[in-house]
Write a structure and sequence with these properties.
This protein is 4% helix and 58% strand. With 365 residues, it is mainly beta. Strands 1, 2, 3, 4, 5, 6, 7, 8, 9, 10, 11, 12 and 13 form a 13-stranded antiparallel β-sheet that branches. Strands 17-16-15-14-22-21-20-19-18 form a nine-stranded antiparallel β-sheet. Strand 18 and strand 19 form a beta hairpin.
Length: 365
Amino acid sequence: MNKKAILAKSISYYQQLGINKEIAVWENGMRSTGGRGTYEWWYFDAEYSDGTKVVVIFYTKNGFDVRGLANPTASLEITFPNGKRISKHISEGRGQKIRASKEQCDVKIAQSSIKYSEGNYLIHFIDGDVEYTCTMKPKLPMWRPGTGHWYYGENQEYYFAWIVPQPSADISATLKVEGETFELNGNGYHDHNWGNTHMRKLMNHWYWCRANIGPYTIIACDIITEKKYDYTRLPVMMLAKDGIILDDNEEKTVIKRLSTEYHPITKKFIDNNLTFIHQVDNGTNFQIEFKREHDILAFNMLDRTGISPMKNSIVKAMGINPTYIRCIGEVKLTVEENGKKEVFEKEGLWEQMFFGSNKDAIIEN
């Protein structure tokens, strides 16, 4: 029996959700109850001109936890140009409901906060001898694919939701670490996810890619559903140029995966060449290639939870073995427009996420 998995794009879904095609500020406020049967997080990343990279995430729960109690947590990960990494994690404790507004992005966890203010986003993370203060000024309008909701199941009872309030932003920050102060400037990104069932029950794996290359900003994803949803491919494509979104109709996108091998750490396949081909119209064609050179991160997520080896083995035997790879390599954009061809190349980052134990997947186009 076919089980549906769709991106909601018709007018009836907009009406059902009480939203319009243009995103309202309140959509980046808290969208879940924050309690059992939900998850939600706000994600921010930054790549600074000196090579420093920073990721901040605010969660209503303890990470991906869906069944558990409310537990406001936040994390900060810093990667310095010399490869040194600092990770911080703060929590208000199980049973504590997150302090967050439904009117706009305004979230507080312990002494840390994220806040929408006059079109910008202000991030403040403090824990011990690390303090990060950041202002993000958008270069593109808020965006989501369709309604931003993917529905799963015969009665569309499950959903995964995603909006991108800042597809690209100019950022300035002050970072204080162990008595040293760094003034930073660069480019950043912010998105927001929520849902009502664990993602591993819906999705087999995904590739999530984005790039700022030449005058273009690109967000491209290849999402493959779980077996019970027929390994359906749910692509995402957003193309923008000079602050204007050009096209985001994923139905025009063809994805090719090449140079596939098994990863030595995750033991699952990794495609070393991902190519997204997007035909805007008869006169305009985009081809975006992501060529993996090496990994910044590659790990089995269960190995980082601190559970005992015996419980780890039991959970993996149940088919739960999430893995994560953050790749780095060459991004090549070829734009053909009215008979003219332009090629842009730049180093970029993208990720692969597996949710289960499978090593392979049959991908239905």
